[in-house]
Write a structure and sequence with these properties.
Length: 353
């Protein structure tokens, strides 16, 4: 098949990890006779430096003309002045909104080989395999806000409409049908009106998915259950901000934030794929970044935007074999032990492909 993929390396370790994922896509594409074209564009802090805009029109146009976006990470200390009128994150939020990518899928698996990198007892990690479905274009991230004013007060608004909750709930129920048929919806319905609407709407959508077992967990309790009984979760549906926080917490189960991929999807097949981790400016340019999250994001791109399930599986299998064989980047290396560089790790994945 023919596909154009826009690569937005972004800031910090973004360029290092996307470069490795592109190598993987080129290799699997070549093996299966696909014609993948990669085009790079500016987004985030680097786009601010070069154009003054974190999401230049040219970048949007490039994305519009492609099947999917592969993104590294955005942000860094040089752009983090809270009073600055433009910030790198606005580029990412703008992309999600522009393409109406309302469903963010973040799978979290515990890798037995990395159990010693988690603060949890190994037996708690047994069977941990969950999928976060995070609402991505609504809620407090995009609700009415007051950013300036008298400097003495500020507000953000958690605002959800029934259609917004319905569509992301449908994605979550369908995902559960393809997995262990369990859905946990996270809310704060005991306090927030928006979250009572959330729960009510999820209950209503459940009528169309009677084969899925649904339960509701308050977000504070959920943070605890993620550590005390993580294997009990299958699909977890959460609002934009709760999903952001919970998925970082859950990354602990995988051994490192560097392990987690994500896919942001809308109504069609177009999607944005990025690791869950940030730009990690402290280790940028040192070959210490773990490319796993981005390589697994590329596998999700093959699966969801290009419909190439076998190719996606092949990438995931090669990656798991690489880990099982003992290759370790700095973040998952034993204390004081040796580790391979970002490029060497990806090279190992390529060899197994
Ligand atoms: C994420 C990030 C973003 C978010 C930031 C960079 C805007 O933390 O993708 O999880 O909060 O959504
Ligand atoms: Mn986050």
């Amino acid at each position: 098949m023919k596909a154009t993929i826009t690569v937005l390396p972004g800031d910090g370790i973004g360029p290092e990890v996307t470069a490795q994922a592109v190598r993987v896509l080129e290799k699997i594409g070549g093996k299966h006779d696909h014609d993948f074209t990669f085009q790079e564009a500016l987004m985030g802090g680097i786009a601010i430096d070069k154009t003054g805009n974190p999401l230049p029109d040219e970048t949007l146009k490039a994305c519009e003309q492609s099947s999917a976006i592969l993104l590294g990470a955005v942000g860094g200390p040089q752009w983090s002045d809270p009073t600055a009128p433009v910030r790198p994150e606005q580029g990412l939020l703008g992309l999600r909104k522009h393409f109406d990518l309302f469903a963010n899928l973040r799978p979290v698996k515990a890798y037995p080989a990395l159990a010693q990198h988690t603060p949890l007892r190994a037996e708690l990690l047994d069977g941990v395999d969950m999928l976060f479905v995070r609402e991505l274009t609504g809620g407090i991230y995009f609700g009415p806000r007051q950013e300036q004013g008298d400097g003495l007060s500020a507000y953000d608004t958690e605002l959800y409409t029934v259609p917004e909750v319905e569509r992301v709930a449908q994605v979550a129920f369908r995902a559960a049908q393809g997995r262990r048929r369990k859905l946990t919806s996270v809310d704060k319905a005991n306090v927030l009106a928006s979250m009572r609407l959330w729960r009510r709407t999820v209950v209503k959508v459940h009528e169309d998915y009677a084969d899925v077992e649904l339960d509701h967990v308050l977000v504070d309790a959920c943070t605890m259950y993620l550590m005390t009984r993580p294997a009990a979760f299958d699909v977890i549906l959460a609002s934009n901000m709760f999903g952001d926080i919970l998925s970082d917490e859950a990354s602990v189960l995988a051994g490192s934030l560097g392990m987690l991929p994500s896919a942001s999807l809308g109504a069609g097949t177009f999607g944005l794929y990025e690791p869950v981790h940030g730009s990690a400016p402290d280790i940028a340019g040192q070959g210490k970044a773990n490319p796993t999250g981005t390589i697994l994001s590329a596998a999700m791109l093959l699966r969801y935007s290009l419909g190439l399930e076998a190719e996606a599986r092949a990438v995931e299998t090669a990656l798991e074999q690489t880990l099982a064989a003992g290759a370790r980047t700095a973040d998952i290396a034993p204390r004081g032990g040796s580790f391979v560089s970002t490029g060497e790790f990806a090279g190992d994945v390529l060899a197994r492909l």
